[in-house]
Amino acid sequence: MSIARITRHLLQHHWRRRRNFPPVLLAKIEQAINAGEATHSGQIRFVVEGALDGAPLFRNQSARERALDVFSHLRIWDTANNNGVLIYLLLADRDVEIVADRGIDAKVGAEGWEKICKEMEIDFRAGDFERGVIKGVEAVSRELATHFPRAGGGTNELPDAPVVL
């Protein structure tokens, strides 16, 4: 466990998360998810977390492990076609993780998801969170549209609104 990481997480104030993800941006992300889901039968959730606290922090939980916990807690795995995707951002670590259910993950694979994460992180390092998230949602939607195109009306199995932790 790194003292620098603990300090970074403990000093990560909620105002920073609110500054980087104001309500207007959260609404744009929701619109992007909704527009993307019109092209495929998959389900996308976006979660931003400012910092870890308590047990996850002192267990030295990685962003990937935390993303897996969030994926499970939000029941993203509970979709009819096993094609739910979580885009998770841990601001304190400046880390993006994509967790995908087995139906879509088998088609895209770790390398495909990592490529999308790296593209998002480039925009985040430049301070352009809006562009990074929107590009990420669009890239995930393209993968889902390729492998799970929308057939008929379909149902929206999960909420499109971003989650702020």
From TrEMBL:
The UniProt entry, under Gene3D superfamilies, shows: 3.10.310.50
User: What region holds the TPM domain?
Assistant: 27-142
**InterPro entries registered for this protein in UniProt:** TPM_dom
Classification via PANTHER family = BLL7265 PROTEIN (PTHR30373:SF8), UPF0603 PROTEIN YGCG (PTHR30373)
What is the protein name given in its UniProt record?
Answer: TPM domain-containing protein
